[in-house]
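User: Some background: our group keeps a shared notebook of sequences we're curious about, and every so often someone picks one and asks for a predicted structure to add to the entry. Today it's my turn. The entry only has the sequence so far, pasted here. Could you supply the structure so I can complete it?
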Amino acid sequence: MTPRVSAARAAAPPPRPMELRPLGRGGPLVSRLGLGLAALGRPAYHTLGHDADFPEGRAPEQLERRTHAVLDAAVAAGVRYVDAARSYGRAEAFLRSWLERRGARRGEPVVGSKWGYRYVGEWRLDAERHEVKDHSLAGLRAQEAESLALLGPWLSLYQVHSATPESAVLADDAVLDELARLRDRGIRIGVTVSGPSQADVVRRALAITRGGAPLFDAIQATWNVLERSVGPALQEAHDAGRGVILKEPLANGRLGPRGDAAAEGPLAEAVRETGYAPDALALAAAVAQPWADVVLLGAVTVEQLHSNLGALALTPGGGELAALSGLREPPEAYWRRRATLVWR
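Assistant: Of course. Here's the predicted structure to add to the notebook entry:
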């Protein structure tokens, strides 16, 4: 049995350097753990307990300071990939002010963003809708201009945000041609996928070419120990030389200290047996996937970030993770549950 480890050790940043690897064939060097800004750039998000993490308030200037603090801690720990989106409220603007403050050059860290959703929450916690999908050519051109205005000197990866079979964005030749023009200007193009049909969308994206070359250099998908169905398709993407980014590895908090999966079952038992925090265990399972280049963290406090970084203290394939092998849900059930999570 793995020796018991104290909770303090599980929460501390690991002393060893974070592993770097290319984001796909010929891609920029990125860290195995990245930082996503979905829950930092706008006041409400559908992570469990999100409303308890901002006792000082969630005015724009307060969230900007918090974003900078978490970014500082992440980079100090070796994080070299940051992920934003047009729909993440002011995330791109917060990221720009941080990059300017540091005098950062392109690639320090590698910056990715996305187009395809618009933030419509008007900074209200009780907004009826916080974001709306728009995969039109006009939407792409408008959001591309906005992202380039904010992140142009640093932007390395621009992604279609949440392609699904219903959105049909991967069948829109005008949109794909516009993305190819952006690629030809030196920005790598990616696609993120969501929903129970993620694997089908990944495989469709892998087949799309422009100018005799694959259009998409990177694939971002939801993978966690509860929802693993996209894994074989991501292995195919990795084998084809695409970068692979995993999002929602903690299932919007369900696999974290506040989540239902940490309260009982295999994850709770693994926490009791090893002394590692549930988020560290769940993240370690994601990092252990050899085809995953980056696993995105959604930390909104420095303390959460340090707990997440405990994942790097676990050995891939080690006994600590063996108990998680049976922890999974049918994709349809997982995505139905996700749809019930409340923005707060």
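Suggested note for the entry: The mean pLDDT is 93. The radius of gyration is 19 Å.
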